[in-house]
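can u do me a favor
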């Protein structure tokens, strides 16, 4: 029996406007290997599930949730079901623009066992403005040190080695914490597994939707709710990774970012400060004082691997 080389894990919720474009872009992929497509429909309240059944019912493995799990549990379950040597995580409101993307990334990982994952730059599509913009992210090698130094998301996860089911003892936290935001958990876990190669080409389109009445994550989140998701996951991961990496810079940068976003409203500011643990609130105030007296430049040592990595 031919080995499944790649498991394409597609998470979707209320994506009836976009799901067919997404699936069409997946089936346009030109590959020379066997792949499976797992679709986790997280109890959508629209026609998403029916559209999948009517158009691709016999070509995908549709897991039609009877209750809403949230993105993180939905995704983790797909990872545990995945049979491929590699996995690729994607959202039902995005789409692929390079027909050879999966082939390129799988070939790269087959030829370079020292990498855990391979991804590419993406175009950002602003739904409200009907406009595209380039991600502006560097390409080439990307490590967990780069992630901690910058704190920004450089690209989508891309093609990853499938370690999830075998490594549940160490990735048990992936479905925990924030229900619908996997970023902190997934980036720390996957980058701890090994470095990523980011292709220069723009291979995918990330759809940004932030509008009243929409059901996606950003349309239903205030700055405070966004921060709370990030913060609770950082707190959850400190005992997991705190002995190996110095998470202090990443946490302070995140706290300061959202504090600044909410500082124009005194009520929002005090609500934000009350969400912090006392020690973190004191550290944030000290960090702000440091920035004010150092021309708003972060400490130089934060950009050194020696400071970020405690244990090699």
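np, heres the sequence
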């Amino acid at each position: 029996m031919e080995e499944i080389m790649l498991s394409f894990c597609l998470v979707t919720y209320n994506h009836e406007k976009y799901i067919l474009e997404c699936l069409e872009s997946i089936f346009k992929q030109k590959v020379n290997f066997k792949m499976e497509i797992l679709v986790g429909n997280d109890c959508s309240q629209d026609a998403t599930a029916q559209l999948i059944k009517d158009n691709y019912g016999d070509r995908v493995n549709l897991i039609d949730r009877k209750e809403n799990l949230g993105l993180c549990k939905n995704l983790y379950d797909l990872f545990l079901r995945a049979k491929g040597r590699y996995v690729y995580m994607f959202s039902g409101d995005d789409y692929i623009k390079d027909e050879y993307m999966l082939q390129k990334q799988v070939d790269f990982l087959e030829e370079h066992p020292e990498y855990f994952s391979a991804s590419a730059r993406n175009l950002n599509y602003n739904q409200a403005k009907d406009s595209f913009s380039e991600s502006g992210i560097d390409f080439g090698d990307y490590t967990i040190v780069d992630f901690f130094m910058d704190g920004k998301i450089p690209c989508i996860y891309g093609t990853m080695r499938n370690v999830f089911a075998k490594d549940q003892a160490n990735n048990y936290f992936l479905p925990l914490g924030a229900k619908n935001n996997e970023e902190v958990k997934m980036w720390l876990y996957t980058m701890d597994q090994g470095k990523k190669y980011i292709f220069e080409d723009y291979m995918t389109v990330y759809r940004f939707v932030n509008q009243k009445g929409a059901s996606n994550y950003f349309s239903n989140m205030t700055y405070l709710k966004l921060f709370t998701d990030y913060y609770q996951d950082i707190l959850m991961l400190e005992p997991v990774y705190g002995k190996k990496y110095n998470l202090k810079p990443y946490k302070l940068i995140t706290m300061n970012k959202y504090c600044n976003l909410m500082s124009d409203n005194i009520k929002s500011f005090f609500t934000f400060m009350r969400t912090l643990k006392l020690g973190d609130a004191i550290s944030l105030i000290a960090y702000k004082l440091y920035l004010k007296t150092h021309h708003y430049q972060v400490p130089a040592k934060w950009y050194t691997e020696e400071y970020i990595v405690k244990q090699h």
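The mean pLDDT is 93. hope that helps!!
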